[in-house]
């Protein structure tokens, strides 16, 4: 490898590694839903599922409120300084998680009432931290997506670079469930978890992110020309005037909505099936995960779901000749079929398999939605990231429906609806109108 190629690869590798951290901590946040349901929310009564999904809701609220903040910072201070600011938000969120664990462990009787639900104040502290973690992820993703898509790495195409970066992100999401299960809670049964077990792992994570922040602030990340407006430079049109982008925002809202809802809620559905003595076998060995609230299923389902992202993204990074539109069309059709089969048969593994199909959707939608935007790219990325709030909306809506219906089974209809929206975008919405073509 030549010195020039190595110099080109290093910034790409740095940004990709930071995206790994984002993926890891995003999934850690999701995986804490079930343990906190049995600690902070043990007495939440009929609202237990609704309150549990507030963890994901507040995380993605950070995307909605602060996604555009990231794009403003990119235009004002550049890509690297915006990443550093995002890492500082991450540190703040982790510190508040640590504070929530301390409050929950030291003052277990510090609670308040919401209807028939008794809620620990430590839970309120935790969801504030979740909001800051979501803000951090949003700011960093505002940088990563346009940077990777526009970065000139020899021998690669935008959708390939995005697939490579998101594949590394998926290594983080795949390893996170076992971090929560084995490191944070020592592999014990979920009904026996204790909130104090969060303290040392969180302290270690805070130290690691602090080191990464310090190193990143000293590294050189080259700017990318023609992807952002400089301070004071006027925009001639609204970003919403690009139809393929506007519909892409809707598509990503639905995509992240169903992606996160499955990842966050599939464990709660599994516990419901086990409570009703519904067999959930794995390669014919039902005894692996039956017989009570086994925490192993929590890690197994999530690891296989997010592992599907990793495999799919690694494979699709080699798709040089298959267009993003074709990949999105095929994946969304197959996802609709799997979701329908999962509901009809009550077979949770069909939901897990959707992870493989979701793997390339982000890269496909982002590359299609930002195509030909040029200097509008960084602003588009901020708006695009705000649409990740779909992960909050669909997760909590599904939790509320599960409480209303008394079951998670038919709530997966939301997944079918989202996949149909993605299919429409692939076939119709992603096509660029002639008046939206930019030559500079």
Describe what this molecule looks like in 3D.
Helices cover 70% and strands 2% of the residues. With 440 residues, the protein is an all-alpha fold. A two-stranded antiparallel sheet has the order 1-2. It is globular.
Brief overview, please?
The protein has helices at residues 3-31, 33-37, 48-52, 54-77, 79-106, 121-150, 158-184, 199-218, 243-275, 295-316, 324-345, 349-358, 361-369, 377-386, 390-405, 413-429; strands spanning 111-114, 117-120. By secondary structure, the protein is mostly helical.
Which short descriptors sum up this protein?
440 residues; mainly alpha
- Give the count of helical stretches: 16
**Rounded Rg:** 21 Å
Q: Which structural class is indicated by helix and strand composition?
A: mainly alpha
Q: What CATH first level would be assigned?
A: Mainly Alpha
For the record, the CATH architecture stands as Up-down Bundle
Give the total of domains. 1
* Extended strand count: 2
Per the principal axes of the C-alpha atoms, what is the gross shape? globular
Mean pLDDT: 82
Stretches with pLDDT under 50, minimum 5 residues: 282-295
Strand content: under 5%
Task: Give the CA-CA distance, first to last residue.
Answer: 33 Å
Largest sheet: 2 strands, antiparallel
User: Helicity level, as a percent range?
Assistant: 55-70%
Biggest sheet, spatial arrangement of strands: 1-2
Fourth CATH level, the homologous superfamily: MFS general substrate transporter like domains
CATH topology-level fold name: Growth Hormone, Chain: A
Order of helices and strands: HHHHHEEHHHHHHHHHHH
